Amino acid sequence: MNILSTLNLYKTYGMGDTKVEALKQVSFSVSKGEFVSVIGPSGSGKSTLLNMVGALDQPTSGMVMIDGREVHKMKEEELSVFRRRNIGFVFQSFNLIPELNVEENIVLPILLDYQKPDQNYIKELLGLLGLTERKRHLPSQLSGGQQQRVAIGRALATKPAIILADEPTGNLDSKNSQDVMNLLKLSVDQYHQTVIMITHNHSYASFADRVFQVNDGMVRELGASRR
Amino acid sequence: MLILSDKNVRFQAAVMVLILLLLIIVSQIYVMRMAGDYKRNMIAHDAEIAGYLLGNGLDEQLIKMAFTTQKTAVDQKMGTAVLKDSGYDENTSNFLLPEITGFQQKYAFIALALSLSFSLLLLATFSFFLWKQDKQLNDAGKKIQGFMDGDVSIRLEDSYEDHLSRLFAKINTMATALTAHMEKEKNNRLFLKETISDISHQLKTPLAALQMYNEIILDEKPGNAVVVDFSQKSQRELLRMENLIQNLLKLAKLDAGTIALEKNTHDLNEFLEKCRSAFMTRAALENKKISLVCDRSIRLCFDEIWLNEALGNIIKNALDHTKAMDSIAICGVENRLAIEITVKDNGSGIHPDDIYHIFERFYRSRYSKDQQGIGIGLALSKSIIEKHGGTITVQSELGEGTVFHLIFPKLTNL
After folding, report:
1. Residue B251 belongs to a domain with what CATH number?
2. What is the mean pLDDT of residues B39-60?
3. Residue B209, domain extent
4. What average pLDDT does range B260-277 have in this prediction?
5. Are residues B313 and B387 in the same domain?
6. Are residues B275 and B205 located together in one domain of the fold?
7. Which residue of A has its CA nearest to B187?
8. What is the chain A residue with the closest CA to B158?
9. N or C: which end of chain A has fewer CB within 10 A?
10. ipTM confidence
């Protein structure tokens, strides 16, 4: 079943001479439980693609369906609720709230939706991410790898339909990168999550079930013919 | 304020507050009008009194003073006493005072109208919101029904902040998980079916080759009694193996749910006769009798090939467990509720320890001396009969014989 599908997606920035086509005719679909990585050079449209898929930006034309709902037709108010419930984000620069401790950062998206966090699940999540000992620490007291693990926990907290990761290892050294990648893979397998991850590192791309390559706004699946 | 995060609740609360505010304002306005009315009535009353007194020759100055000067408690007491003498005091009935009655009637009507209209307004608002919520729930119910009816891409409307929307979001997650699960299950079934047919096809070829080699050896007539004996034995085993593979394939196909039964209405007697005749040669060879009793009018809806397989296994089983001179009786009966096929033999019977297990796959009795079976025939029969919506039961007495009942309920005729 397709948890995410796009059809003839176009995104253009600017007008007239300064017009830039960031995405051209993008059509693909991702099944539930798949780990997809997106690679491509800088400026090729990777982040634009992730913004479209994550309902952070509206496409110029074409459609995006997440779990059977047409995201491109939603209003801004609906979108923010939809994002909160259905999409988990992991960013390159962690984006944790500095005043909140590890546990509070992880349950934040649940509290934002006026819900009570399931303590057992949060405990399990902290254990899986190896943060049980550090759940009372502030982000500033953690290493980069640990902070990114907190961000992964935050993305997993609401059990979203899809997790989007924009270069999750971009700010980490190679050892921490490896840890974060292993954890991301482990946690998505554990909770049958769907992940779309942008990465520059081709060896991390091989963690994925499928690899998309973006070039000049065109998306192509590597090895698609073999599937 | 968790409860006010709900947009609907917030809107409803706002409308209610507005209505209540309006009620306060309107009632205050009416109190003002009531005061004015009271004043008008009092002045008219006083004027009447003044006029009357003037007409009866009282001093004009004195009358003016009577209405404008401040009166004392003593004045009131004396006045009350005077009026009481003429029967005019607080206890006087309202009916005798037309001004009071008119005043009461007018304001009773106004208060009634006011409270009634505001009550109706509140009620209407309340039921409007109830109706709205009801509609939302009904729509959700319809969508869930649609999902269950097979449209797995349907999702509930969950992009709002209210409680229902949060519940719907959870239901959507559940729907997605279910769909993913279903898809996986379907793929697994397909994979299983393909694997089984691959394996059996792979096995069939060497088996056919073996059979051919065996026949060649037998045809050579080696003149060696041992070789002939063992070639015949291996011929028998090969046939058994072929049978087993075919049955396994059938059972697996049934399990994978990839078989669609081609059900048609047939004459039961004709069908049973066909089944019986297939075993007549073997029965004659082993000196056993197979009898058939069936009413010609009975008609049953079934897949002929598969039910033949099921019944064939049961008859074969009966033949395997009877001695020469024993008899097998096939019988078809129809009653109001069901059509029943019974296969009865007077053979060795089933040991009580075995009777609960005979429909299990690969179950081999510890008590049976028969070496031929592999324990898959009855399991296959049960699967087929259950696919037809029927049931199979067995009764047996050790040494007396066994009866198999195949019961097909006539559900459509109930």
Report:
1. 1.10.287
2. 88
3. 155-259
4. 87
5. yes
6. no
7. A1
8. A82
9. C
10. 0.71
Domain count, chain B: 3
Q: Inspect the interface and report whether the beta carbons of A32 and B180 lie closer than 8 Å.
A: yes
Would the CB atoms of B159 and A81 count as touching at under 8 Å?
A: yes
B159 and A32 within 8 Å at the Cβ level: the answer is: no
Residue among A69, A78, A113 minimizing CB distance to B155: A69
CB pairs under 8 A between A and B: 48
Closest CA of chain A from B380, distance in Å = 34
Instruction: Answer whether B158 sits within 8 Å of A74, measured CB to CB.
Output: no
Q: Which of B160, B161, B176 sits opposite A67 (nearest CB)?
A: B176
Candidates B3, B9, B159, partner chain A, best to mutate (most A CBs within 10 A): B159
| B187/A contact by beta carbon, under 8 A | no
- Residue B242 shares a structural domain with residue B105: no
Query: B238 and B286: one domain?
Result: no
Residue ranges of domains in chain A? 2-226
Chain-chain contact of A1 with B159 (C-beta, under 8 angstroms): no
Give the domain CATH number at B402: 3.30.565.10
CA distance, residue A33 to nearest chain B CA (Å): 9
Cα nearest neighbour of A3 on chain B = B176
- B388 and B273 assigned to the same domain: yes
pLDDT interval class at A225 (50, 70, 90): low
Point out the residue among A79, A82, A161 whose CB comes nearest to the CB of B176.
A161
Q: Are B173 and B137 in the same domain?
A: no
This prediction's pTM = 0.63
- Same domain, yes or no, for B138 and B171? no
Summarize pLDDT for A26-39 with one digit per residue, the tens: 999 998 888 999 98
Both B202 and B275 in a single domain? Answer: no
Q: What is the 3-state secondary structure (H, E, C) of chain B?
A: CHHHHCHHHHHHHHHHHHHHHHHHHHHHHHHHHHHHHHHHHHHHHHHHHHHHHHHCCCCHHHHHHHHHCCCCHHHHHHHHHHHHHCCCCCCCCHHHCHHHHHHHHHHHHHHHHHHHHHHHHHHHHHHHHHHHHHHHHHHHHHHHHHHHCCCCCCCCCCCCCCHHHHHHHHHHHHHHHHHHHHHHHHHHHHHHHHHHHHHHHHHHHHHHHHHHHHHHHHHCCCCCHHHHHHHHHHHHHHHHHHHHHHHHHHHHHHHHCCCCCCCEEEEHHHHHHHHHHHHHHHHHHCCCEEEEEECCCCEEEECHHHHHHHHHHHHHHHHHCCCCCCEEEEEEEECCCEEEEEEEECCCCCCCCCCCCCCCCCCCCCCCCCCCCCCCHHHHHHHHHHHCCCEEEEEEECCCEEEEEEEEECHHHC
Cβ contacts (< 8 Å) between B9 and chain A: which residues?
none
pLDDT tens digit string along A88-131? 999 888 889 999 999 999 999 888 888 888 899 999 889 888 88
- Structurally, at CATH architecture level, domain A2-226 sits in 3-Layer(aba) Sandwich (3.40)
